[in-house]
Design a protein that fits this description.
homodimer; alpha/beta; Aspartate Aminotransferase, domain 2; Aspartate Aminotransferase, domain 1; 2 domains; seven-stranded mixed sheet; 13 helices; 11 strands; about 40% helix
């Protein structure tokens, strides 16, 4: 019940045990095409270029940024938690001129703040995290596409922690590039990074296409500044997923199967229903931790549905309590990073763990651990408050 | 029966369906430590820094090169096939000054040729492929560590296609960095890249360590030229796998389970026995294709055990024959790249496919397809020749 990676849906685990076929087997290429179509549904986009980067979520982030940004390009990153710092870090390594605005941990930005910073910095790319698990905050994105495009920029979003459990609209919100991972609300394992690219983003990237020696043909004349990574060169990755099927990496087939099953399960449930499920169990957990007398961290009006951060009560050893949760009850909860390390616990309700029994069991166990640690706690206060949320939802 | 990815060992598929635990769960960190120990056995090394890069084989290559090479550093790449070109390509994108020597496709280099080129170019890194599946050639490595070190260079090797099916000695041959993949002789899926680093290589990489903002502490003072990739920054990846457990990516746990099972199966079989198995079935396939009247490509004295390339006979449509093999018999064989595209077929006998029944079935099917395509072929010539190899081995 941590902030991810989380318990994987057993149907996804099962999907990964399917046998492999060759990388140009018609079944394989048809499966790749099917995955592209499924993730258009997940991202809510018409983008043709919707595919997987073979690596963890930060591989997706780096592929997006290194393919978009040339050395010297300006990028604006609104930072409201650890994963904003990660975007800065990756963009800097791309040689970009990185501008930041910072919000206090536990808050998000207004559209006006971002608009103003865009006017001042005039970047090529506005790069923002939707849900930053380090603070549990969910940055509103609906206005940012219009803002970015009005200032002549592309809008990139890291939706790893939020996608599938919080409202997300690639096309309606004007997002140009979005990357994600499977190990949060999608209920899968880490190791595959879905990505979608708007036609405008594709044009920017293809203007830098350099097909690698050994497979380039005479018509593959190099263009623009070569992308600084081979593995993350999305121009070549698109040629591998596209009709040309130009060999790049060898697609990680087991992870492809996992990604397919994650998307299939989400679309069968329905994205709106999946978001409602995350909201329900997130509200039950929020009420439950408050019912245990814990103080919630951050601006709950902008909290992600799928994770809550609570202040570790005075007198409780946070790490000892986490160990007791794991060793006595088999339940993992998380700590955080940077200014919040050792100050808060983060409890997730995401993907396969956004379940009634998982919420109540976690609250029941946490009550026992808090009591054993000497905290004042109302007997049944956590489970009772969560039950009320569930009863109201049924009414 | 292509040059990889190949049919995955069912025990590896099964291992991937195990449930995940949190990334700092004691079971998880113990499993990571176990994987490090297992791959020391696979690589035949005492290197402490033996771990996985979360991506396909070329992710491992790029992690090695981008972590070792600073812009302007000289690197020497002896190129004898497509994957030598890939090393050049990746090193160029690192900003390195890349020097090459080239061998005709189907041949390898003598130690003297490489020694001479080292003396002329005096690189920081000598980067070489062991087995290049594009040509099936296996470059002898035993003398290269001494040569590289005498010239003050580190020796990097891409052993993706060969490891586990051909003799390989990291420490005895003086290799500083080796990367591989699971999808060839190790019998696993693509998507995880085992890597091992000598203490000398670790020193070079740690001299460039920059812990990322958001998790760096005051004692993490940046050093040297920052590595141009965050995802492939092996200094940080080593801190994630090491006792500090400093968060980097979220380890791809299902692929970790796959990598563990691949190594476990290889070490239970015994590396020498696994190499002997690949040699036996490779010799049977070699005899078999000759028995079918096919001409073998390249210098068979330096062929990898686990793949053979044959010239497509005059009058046979190579792609139509590959399609018939797949559609009629469910057997995939490969074509090649660059100068060999459409000129040869490549037939693998590696990992789980290095089996008696797989060899004989492939030869029986190929005989039917060649005959249907109008090639002159001796009835039973392929299977018969392979049987003789097996009978001699039993004698």
């Amino acid at each position: 019940m941590g902030p991810g990676p989380i318990t994987v849906d057993p149907r996804v685990l099962h999907a990964m045990s399917a046998q492999l076929v060759g990388q140009y087997d018609p079944f394989m290429t048809a499966t790749m095409n099917e995955v592209m179509a499924l993730y258009r549904g997940v991202f809510r986009t018409e983008n043709e270029q919707t595919l997987l980067v073979d690596g963890t979520s930060r591989a997706g982030i780096e592929a997006a940024l290194v393919s978009l940004l040339e050395p010297g390009d300006r990028v604006l990153v609104p930072v409201f938690g650890r994963f904003g710092h990660l975007l800065v870090e990756i963009a800097e390594r791309c040689g970009a001129a990185v501008h930041t605005i910072e919000a206090e941990w536990g808050t998000v930005f207004t559209a006006e703040q971002i608009d103003e910073a865009m006017a001042q910095t005039r970047p090529k790319v506005l790069a923002v995290v939707q849900g930053d698990t380090s603070t549990t905050m969910c940055q509103p994105l609906a206005d940012l596409g219009e803002i970015a495009h009005r200032h002549g920029a592309l809008l990139y979003c890291d939706a790893t922690a939020s996608l599938g459990g919080n409202p997300f609209e690639t096309d309606a919100w004007g997002l140009d590039v979005v990357t994600a991972g499977l190990q949060k609300c999608l209920g899968g394992p880490s190791g595959s990074a879905p990505i979608t690219l708007s036609p405008a983003a594709v044009d920017v990237i293809n203007a830098r296409k350099h097909v690698e020696a050994g497979i380039a043909t005479d018509s593959d004349r190099p263009r623009g500044a070569r992308i600084a990574s081979n593995y993350f060169d999305l121009a070549m990755v698109m040629d591998y997923w596209g009709p040309r099927r130009l060999n790049h990496h060898t697609e990680a087939t087991s992870m492809l199967y996992a990604a397919r099953e994650c998307a299939r399960l989400l679309l069968v449930e329905g994205i709106d229903d999946a978001v409602a499920r995350h909201r329900l169990h997130g509200e039950a957990m929020l009420a439950g931790v408050r019912g245990l007398g814990l103080e919630v961290f951050g601006d709950t009006a902008h909290k992600m549905t799928n994770v809550v951060a609570v202040h570790i009560p005075d007198g409780i050893d946070g790490e000892a309590a986490r160990t007791a949760m794991l060793e006595e009850f088999g339940i993992e909860i998380g700590t955080s990073f940077g200014p919040l390390a050792g100050r808060v616990w983060r409890i997730g309700t995401m993907g396969y763990n956004a379940r009634h029994d998982a919420v109540l069991t976690t609250l029941a166990a946490l009550e026992q651990v808090l009591r054993a640690g000497g905290a004042g706690v109302t007997a049944g206060g956590g489970v009772g408050a969560a039950r009320e949320v569930y009863e109201e939802a049924r009414a």
